[in-house]
């Protein structure tokens, strides 16, 4: 905010800021008839889109009082933008026109660096970036470096001018004193419509003001690190010389790395570009639509990729570098959504994001449909490939085994120490290796006779080689490979143990691999109070019928009592015994799938407990995600709210984990984002309330019988029994015929729950958009259903 004084002495406070598209009307009102008579009619939106720098002055009422747009070439058809320098030299006697200018502050370094090769600056990691550092090269440090400083260097060669030479083949060379210091090769973007349809590029540009031939794709880019601070000027000049306005960089996942362009260093591009979010896609029934289907250029199936954009108006857009070390433990839905929000902040550049994950980044595994586990539909393999997490986040493969709060580092299973300024714990919950109760099953014993703590002990012995506890894609792929190599062609039994939707998806996976149903024993543990594996009784009935038809043996209310008749080291596992409400159950076993006893990983528990963070069956947090240490936050099912809130029935496990991660990021961003206004003071007592979230809880998977299952519901408190939803229930199809679709509307006629059970693949993202919609938005759905006009919700 500055105060300006007019020639008449009138004072007015004004703010200088970058121009926005919303300013167009105010800017247009500043153009006087006399100016229009001289310069002609000005398309303000087009001016803002193509300007390298546009600045607006606004008063306290946000009325626009002045505007200026700056270009790197003369406007109009007076001269080709790529050849304006000779034009100026010819007509205006300009002796020399430099195409790229150094920052004024760099000139101040000339005398200091005359006899030196480098100027070096170290700054504390948590200190905000000052303007001078934007001309220095940041040296990335190793993940395990414990130094609390960032290193910046400026080479003496960086004080020289850079000159670009363009050639018709869209190849550009940057030279210094006749030596090549950088190369950029690009081609016309052939998939402009595909990118526009699949990515939100219109968050940054007005698409209609950019001709198709003005879009280009970076194919190769190499720049000497000494000239990193010239990167944005280099891109600006390339756009001018090539007559382009938008430059895209695609980043493919590791399994499609052959598609990636050669870019070195990638940071040089990311520092100048903005990451573009993917759009949620409508899944079209192309065969049914026929000639009415959208263009194949939009619907064609391409290898997924992340996109970054450099446009003319973004070349001068400053970014705030954030050097704070933010370490996320756990590649859960919560952790990934937290990182996603940070990576997609267009005006912030987080330099030190680290993910600690047991098996590395989730998309590093081949996401073929290996089955076994249900899904939350938060991140598919395609979703992950369209996010730039690989480019922005360093990954440390291993488990957290310790936290040193005094020195602020996390100890990883490989022995490495990962330092942090902000630590985010979101490991979620995992199935634990079951510990047999050890009761003598030769005598009649029931579950009610078991000691109270016998079912909650931790297993400490060696894990049998044919016992698989499935928690993530890595575990599922290992089990899949083992089954194909050692079990499918044999005659032994497969025992599936647990009581969740995952036991049913695992049974279906075994059946799909060719394991005969009579070899599969589904052993269900005693259910939790008010809990149900499958929320719809009709769906559960269909699944039970399908398993019976496939001859799968189902045993209910069983608790593991012995492995290999009580052997101390049961490897391989050949027999298992269970107690139940009647006679003990004895089964021969060729492979054992454990999907029981979900809880906090023991190494995570030890790390939390030994660092004296409050742990009460879960990591205890307050309403703003903080633990008892201000530098450590927790989120997701790992956590619970402090008992001082008196809300034991609500925890973050009740909510959509992706939404929780987004809210955690929103809570932390004000610490790093200088553009955010200070938050209003909360009303008295608000800090004693826990936040409630609105997005749906989602569950899906493939169930026995070949059924594709999807269940979407509003968040509900744990251990509270709600009355069944009978009114405003819309049902079409039948579970027996594999076309069952059920919608529940709440008292406001909003879609509160939907359940799909189909023998055909489900367009999941289409159906997810129904949640929370009023039935009137769905074409008076309830009225037409009551009139008998709705026969199939799938069509």
TrEMBL record:
As recorded in UniProt, coiled-coil segments are none
Q: Taxonomic lineage per UniProt?
A: Eukaryota, Metazoa, Chordata, Craniata, Vertebrata
- Return the annotated region ranges for Disordered: 1-20
A single Pfam family, by name? CFAP61_N
Q: What range(s) does the CFAP61 dimerisation domain occupy?
A: 691-794
Q: Per the UniProt entry, what species is this protein from, by scientific name?
A: Sparus aurata (Gilthead sea bream)
Signal peptide: which range, if any?
none
**What are the Cilia- and flagella-associated protein 61 N-terminal domain coordinates in residue numbering?**
15-97
Q: Which InterPro entries match?
A: CFAP61, CFAP61_dimer, CFAP61_N, FAD/NAD-bd_sf
The molecule here is called Cilia and flagella associated protein 61
């Amino acid at each position: 905010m500055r105060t300006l004084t007019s020639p008449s002495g009138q004072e007015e406070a004004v703010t200088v800021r970058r121009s926005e598209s919303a300013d167009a009307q105010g800017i247009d009102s500043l153009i006087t008839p006399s100016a229009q008579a001289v310069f002609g009619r000005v398309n303000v939106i087009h001016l803002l889109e193509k300007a390298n720098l546009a600045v607006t002055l606004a008063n306290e009422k946000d009325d626009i009082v002045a505007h200026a747009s700056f270009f790197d070439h003369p406007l109009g058809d007076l001269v080709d933008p790529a050849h304006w320098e000779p034009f100026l030299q010819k007509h205006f006697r300009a002796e020399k026109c430099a195409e790229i200018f150094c920052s004024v502050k760099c000139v101040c370094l000339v005398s200091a660096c005359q006899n030196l090769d480098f100027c070096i600056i170290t700054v504390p990691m948590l200190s905000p970036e000052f303007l001078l550092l934007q001309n220095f090269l940041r040296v990335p440090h190793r993940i395990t470096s414990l130094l609390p400083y960032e290193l910046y260097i400026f080479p003496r060669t960086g004080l020289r001018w850079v000159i670009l030479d363009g050639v018709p083949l869209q190849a550009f060379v940057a030279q210094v004193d006749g030596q090549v210091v950088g190369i950029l090769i690009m081609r016309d973007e052939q998939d402009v419509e595909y990118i526009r349809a699949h990515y939100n590029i219109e968050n940054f540009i007005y698409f209609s003001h950019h001709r198709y031939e003005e879009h280009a794709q970076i194919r190769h880019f190499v720049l000497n690190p000494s000239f990193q601070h010239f990167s944005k000027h280099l891109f600006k000049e390339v756009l001018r010389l090539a007559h382009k306005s938008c430059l895209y960089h695609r980043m493919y996942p590791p399994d499609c790395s052959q598609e990636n362009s050669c870019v070195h260093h990638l940071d040089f591009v990311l520092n100048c570009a903005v990451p573009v979010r993917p759009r949620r896609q409508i899944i079209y029934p192309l065969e049914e639509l026929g000639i009415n289907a959208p263009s194949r250029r939009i619907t064609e199936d391409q290898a997924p990729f992340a996109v970054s954009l450099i446009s003319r108006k973004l070349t001068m857009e400053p970014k705030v570098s954030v050097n704070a070390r933010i370490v996320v433990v756990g590649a859960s839905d919560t952790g990934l959504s937290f990182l996603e929000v940070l990576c997609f902040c267009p005006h912030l550049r987080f330099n030190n994001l680290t993910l600690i994950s047991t098996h590395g980044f989730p998309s590093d595994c081949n996401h073929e449909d290996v089955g076994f586990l249900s899904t939350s539909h938060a991140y598919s393999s395609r979703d992950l490939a369209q996010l730039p997490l690989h480019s922005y986040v360093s990954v440390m493969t291993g488990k957290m085994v310790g936290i040193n709060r005094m020195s602020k580092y996390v100890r990883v299973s490989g022995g490495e120490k990962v330092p942090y300024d902000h630590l985010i714990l979101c490991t979620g919950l995992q199935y634990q290796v079951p510990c047999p109760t050890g009761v003598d099953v030769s005598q009649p014993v029931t579950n009610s006779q078991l000691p109270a703590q016998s079912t909650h002990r931790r297993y400490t012995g060696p894990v049998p080689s044919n016992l698989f506890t499935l928690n993530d894609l890595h575990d599922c792929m290992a089990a899949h490979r083992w089954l194909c190599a050692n079990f499918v062609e044999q005659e032994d039994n497969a025992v599936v143990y647990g009581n969740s939707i995952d036991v049913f998806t695992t049974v279906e996976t075994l059946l799909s691999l060719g394991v005969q149903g009579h070899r599969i024993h589904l052993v269900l543990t005693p259910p939790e109070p008010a809990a149900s594996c499958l929320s719809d009784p009709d769906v559960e009935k269909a699944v039970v019928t399908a398993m019976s038809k496939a001859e799968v043996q189902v045993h209910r209310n069983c608790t593991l009592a012995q492995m290999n008749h009580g052997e101390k080291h049961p490897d391989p596992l050949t027999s298992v015994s269970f107690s139940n409400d009647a006679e003990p159950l004895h089964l021969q076993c060729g492979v054992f799938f454990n999907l029981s006893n979900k809880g906090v990983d023991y190494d995570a528990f030890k790390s939390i407990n030994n660092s004296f963070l409050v742990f009460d069956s879960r990591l205890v947090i307050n309403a703003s995600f903080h633990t008892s240490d201000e530098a450590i936050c927790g989120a997701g099912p790992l956590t619970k709210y402090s008992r001082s809130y008196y809300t034991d029935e609500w925890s973050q496990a009740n909510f959509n984990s992706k939404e929780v991660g987004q809210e955690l990021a929103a809570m932390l961003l004000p610490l790093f984002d200088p553009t955010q206004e200070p938050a209003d003071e909360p009303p008295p007592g608000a800090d004693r309330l826990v936040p409630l979230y609105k997005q749906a809880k989602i569950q899906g998977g493939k169930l026995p019988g070949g059924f594709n299952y999807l269940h979407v519901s509003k968040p509900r408190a744990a251990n509270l029994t709600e009355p069944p939803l009978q009114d405003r229930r819309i049902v079409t199809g039948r579970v027996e015929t594999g076309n069952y679709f059920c919608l529940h509307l709440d008292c406001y006629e909003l879609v509160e729950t939907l359940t799909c059970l189909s023998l055909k693949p489900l367009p999941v993202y289409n159906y997810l958009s129904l949640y929370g919609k009023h039935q009137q938005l769905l074409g008076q759905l309830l009225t037409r259903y009551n009139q008998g006009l709705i026969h199939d919700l799938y069509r």
